[in-house]
Amino acid sequence: YPSEFLMQKITEDNQVPVHLRVSVSLQYVAGLKGRALVEFFHSNIAEVENEELRHLMWSSVLFYKTPNVEVIACVLVSTKAIYFLLDDSFIHADEHQSDFWNKENSDCENSSFHLSCCFVLKLNDLQSVNVGLFDQYFRITGHSADHIVTCLTRDSYSTHTFIQQLMAVLSLLARTPSPEPVDKDFYSEFGSKNTGKMENYELIHSSRVKFIYPNEEEIGDLAFLVAEKMDGLTNLPSLNILLYVLAFQVNHTEGSAQNTSSLQPKTLILTSSDLFLFDEDYISYPLPEFAKEPPKRDKYQLADGRRIRDLDRVLMGYQTYPQALTFVFDDVQNQDLMQNLTLDHFGE
Questions:
Q1: For residue 230, how many C-alpha atoms fall within 13 Å in the half-sphere facing its CB?
Q2: CB atoms within 10 A of CB 278
Q3: CA dist 241 to 23, 57, 99, 214, Å?
Q4: Which residue in 19, 25, 70, 210 has the most C-beta neighbors within 10 A?
Q5: Which stretch, 107-116, 188-197, 252-261, 308-317, has highest mean pLDDT?
Q6: Is the distance from CB of 312 to CB of 328 less than 8 angstroms?
Q7: Buried b or exposed e, range 220-243, using 16+ CB within 10 angstroms
């Protein structure tokens, strides 16, 4: 350990997505290659001597305690734990949550010393992994609110690779076997489902960690919610969700020294008749077992919705991933123009 293949793979994975800005301390990590990266892991991050680094991924992450702060992290999977190497600015991003992070090193702020904090989730503390719709993100759940993290990969390939690597290292854990399941008869198996709702697909790993995948009903629920937001403009049976993707909305801030653009995380949903942008809560749902009350906000909050028939043109950037799309809609204030021609439409 480590094999040439593993070192080459980890070096290839050590690429920060171009749309994510990282601090100086994380830029240093992103510049490491091969053996230097493995040595950095063992001398600065690894908690025990004999653990092996198996996977590396850059992703935006959300913590259960700070659901509004999306921060970039270098996610490292070893044979003992999952490490989230974070930008030091995150510690100060949400002041009322300062108790969540130990702020002993805050005197380093003004020096040339760049501090990174590392959040550790031991594999033995891992309880479940919830995979989001269309593998756009996944949530890792431990035994308390401090141990819930969502990785917003916005990329099904990265999610799939991470889950595979995590299952592989979990297989190495020596845990006591689960008790033998009691054989159930047909009636007790199917008669106890009094919720009237299909359970999500659960895969219980040999390490007793649950991997939970969304079922078809989740898409149905989403379609119903979208139809509700459309104020009954369309009939539900004909409403099909064609695309669900985690994206960013670009907000240009003009007037500054250079016209900068900020990226606002949004869930884009395309139906056969409309285009929607939602603010989605990626971390609070489904409710963790220890949650005493429902989250303060709904899972989906409508940010913007436009009809496809009002779409005038789509402008495409020619750069490589991530692709920028600009949707230009006809600026018609009143959606159903034909209905209201009887009113004084040409007045004020």
A1: 24
A2: 22
A3: 38, 30, 41, 15
A4: 70
A5: 308-317
A6: yes
A7: eebbebbbebbeeebeeeebebee
Domain boundaries along the sequence of the chain? 4-173+196-212, 216-329
Joined tokens for residue 69: 């702060």
- Fold designation for 216-329: PH-domain like (2.30.29)
Say what the pLDDT of residue 170 is. 95
Task: Locate 34 and state its tokens.
Answer: 């091969």
DSSP 8-state secondary structure symbol assigned to residue 145: G
Structure tokens at 178: 């689960």
- Rounded-to-integer distance, Cα 214 and Cα 321, Å: 27
The rounded distance, in Å, linking the Cα atoms of 160 and 123 is 18
pLDDT at 194: 44
CATH fold of 4-173+196-212: PH-domain like (2.30.29)
One fold for 4-173+196-212 and 216-329: yes
Of all residues in the chain, the percent with pLDDT exceeding 90 is 42
Residue 65 · residue 101 · CB < 8 Å: no
Helix then strand then coil, % of the chain, to nearest 5: 30, 30, 40
Closest residue by Cα to residue 72 from 114, 109, 116 = 116
Q: Confidence class of residue 100 from pLDDT cuts 50, 70 and 90?
A: low
- Average pLDDT (236-252) is 82
Of 142, 70, 145, the closest CA to residue 100 belongs to 145
Confidence bin at 233 (pLDDT 50/70/90)? low
Q: What is the pLDDT of residues 288-302, one digit of tens each?
A: 888 888 888 889 999
222 touches 141 (CB < 8 A): no
CB-hemisphere CA count at 13 Å for 4?
0
pLDDT above 50 for 76: yes
Q: With b meaning 16 or more CB within 10 Å and e meaning fewer, what string describes 58-96? A: bbbbbbbbbbeebbbbbbbbbbbbbbbbbbbebbeebee
- Report which of residues 75 and 344 the model is more confident about: 75
**Contact call for residues 39 and 66 (beta carbons, < 8 A):** no
